[in-house]
Structure formats: C-alpha cells, structure tokens
Amino acid sequence: MVLLSSAHCYAQFSQGPFSSSNAYVSIVGGSLASWQNLDSIYVSDNARVSLTANLSTNGSYSNFLVVDGFNFSIPLGVNIDGIQVDVERSDGNGLSKDNIVRMVGASGNILTADRAKAAAWTATDTYLSYGSSSDTWGRTWVPYEINDPDYGFALSVQRTGGGAQVTLSQIDHIRMTVWYSAFVLPIELLYFNADLIDERVLLKWATATETNNSHFIIERASEDGVFSEIETIASGVDDKNRETAYGYLDKMPLDGVSYYRLKQVDLNGQQETFESVYIDRRTKDGANNTALNINGMLIPFDDLTFKPSDLEIYGMDGALIHRYGVTDFNSINLNVQSGVYLVRMYNGMEHASQKVFIP
C-alpha cells in the first residue's frame, strides 16, 4: 500500500473568528481614563466595556484595553498570511476615535505596528475591521506565537472634538481571524494494487482527496527497469474530499514479471510518481521460483535446478555489493538506489545468475 505523496501547491486556510477569553488593562503614559466591566468583552450581547472617566479634552486618551486567550491552533510549519481583528464599538455622542491599535506578542508585549483609524466611532454598535487576510501587521509570525495564550490585541481610545458632552466610548465584543497557507497534497493515495486475473493484470487504486488533479499515467516495465506509458486515466473527481476508486485492465501483460507504477499529474503539469507494484505470471504457471525479500518487496528469481546456499548481489559495473547466506533470503535489507542489479545464487559447483529490477 502506498500512502501520501509530497505536496505540489499552496492553499490558504483560516481559523476564526474567535473571541478572546481574557481581558486586562495596560497603562499608557499620560492617559486620563481606564476601562471597566472587562468581563463584558467576550461575547456580543450589549453588555459593554466602558471608560472609567470622561476624556474631557480633545486628544485626551485612555489606557490600553488588552484581550488575549483566543485559543488558536494553527498547524506548525505553515506561513501566516494575515490577521484581522473586528471590534464592535460605539460612542453615542460621537466623540471617540482610535488612539492606538496594536497586536500583542506571545510574551504579552504590545507591538509597534499601529492600525488606528481616523474616523469617529459610530453612535451604535458596529464592527470595524483592522487588518485583513493579507496583513501581517508589519512582522513575520510563526504559528506558536499565534497559538500562545498571551497573544492578543490592544486598543486605546481618544476624544475627538471639544464641548461639554462626555465621551461614551464602549466596546461590546472583539474577535480575531488568522489566515495561513500551507502545502496541500494534490492527491491522497490510499492504495495501488495489481492482481493477475485470467492472464490479464487488473490495476486498482483509490484516492481519499484530490486537489487540482488532472490525470493519472500508468507505466509498465519488464525486469530491465525501463518504464513506458501504457495508459492515461482522467481524474474522476473535481476537488472533493471523498474517496474515489479507479481501475485499469492490462489485457496484454508482459511475459514473466511486469512492474507497474502510477504517476499523478497536476493541472499545472507537475507530476508525482508513486512506488511500483509487480505481477509474476510465471507463478501462476507453476514455476518453482525463489522469491527474495529485498527492502520489503518480493523479487522473483528464475526457475532453479538446485537448492542455493549463498547469494551475491552485484552492481551492473561488476562490483560486489553484498553476500548473504541462505538463511537471509527471506529478509534482505539492501541500501541501494532504484535500478538494475545482478543476483548470483550458488551451491558448491552449481550457480545461476539473473538481472533484477529493484524499484
């Protein structure tokens, strides 16, 4: 059974919007007010966080309202593409606007990139978005920072305009969304099998998922290890996360051993080649074959007229790679690249040699 292939392309994912689970105040030097009713920030329910005092003069400002504990679980190894924070806020007198709007790092430090907007807050609760799916707030993030419970968001409000009316800065809810991109598998291959049925070879495979998959190529080789294309099979699914089964019947397999392998081709032409499988038609004909278990794959050997006691494996340049005793035939771990090798079996004065292809 062949499992997953390597990835060919990026795809973007997101988590959120998530609400915070913790809120606190951080001091801003020169501020005239702080925040109260902090437990009201976790859901949008018209119970609001508000200022502890009036910002009485134009440009006067508050401490930071900081929220964290968003409970993200961004996968490790992905790229963070963007962060968006939505703040549901209001000022019935229209005298509030952003002073400072920043992200909070995993250490709890308030960072420097500022996304404050110039417009006054609306008189009724309205979500205003800061950042976007492509805005990383001036820095490169790694997933563990986003997942940290201290990672969060900080906002300070200021008064805009004079007069006797009081500032009614209120925040009902804050939520956050994070976008990230990662390599995706063009296909998730569940299996690729070959069965000999009435002198024909039935190839069967199935995918669990397919993304941007164009088609499959079936290739066949003899014991010389030279693969050639014998069929093309179109993708049977349109970017769906469901199991899809395929099949192909080779009506004219090669005499002796036939190796088969599967190639997957993306819409952009990139290819992925999977491990090969083989069929030995001589087994069905009753030949007395010796099968060598090399690197976990059974390699058939021609009919023998003697019982071998030793085995030698040579490269095609004639160099001896390894020698084995007869007790080792069932499990040979050969650390070599895919290719053609010469196997020599012998017992005293008798010997036999055969080329084998190791996938």
What separation lies between the terminal Cα atoms? 14 Å
Main sheet specs: 6 strands, antiparallel
At CATH level 3, the topology of the largest domain is Jelly Rolls
Q: Give the CATH architecture of the largest domain.
A: Sandwich
Class per helix and strand makeup? mainly beta
Radius of gyration: 34 Å
SSE topology string: EEEEEEEEHEEEEEEEEEEHEEEEEE
What is the tally of beta strands?
Answer: 24
* Count of helical regions: 2
Morphology call: elongated
- Kindly give the count of domains: 3
Mean pLDDT: 85
Q: Kindly state the percentage of residues in helix.
A: under 10%
Main CATH class of the largest domain: Mainly Beta
Can you describe this structure?
The chain has 359 residues and is mostly beta strands. The protein folds into three domains: 9-183, Sandwich (Jelly Rolls), CATH 2.60.120; 187-281, Sandwich (Immunoglobulin-like), CATH 2.60.40.10; 288-358. The chain has helices at 143-147, 281-284; strands at 9-19, 22-26, 35-36, 49-51, 64-68, 79-90, 96-104, 126-131, 152-159, 170-184, 187-197, 200-210, 213-221, 228-234, 244-250, 257-266, 271-273, 277-280, 290-294, 297-301, 310-314, 320-325, 339-347, 350-358. Strands 1, 3, 4, 6, 8 and 10 form a six-stranded antiparallel sheet that branches. The longest helix is centred in the middle third of the chain and has 5 residues, at 143-147. The two termini are 14 Å apart.
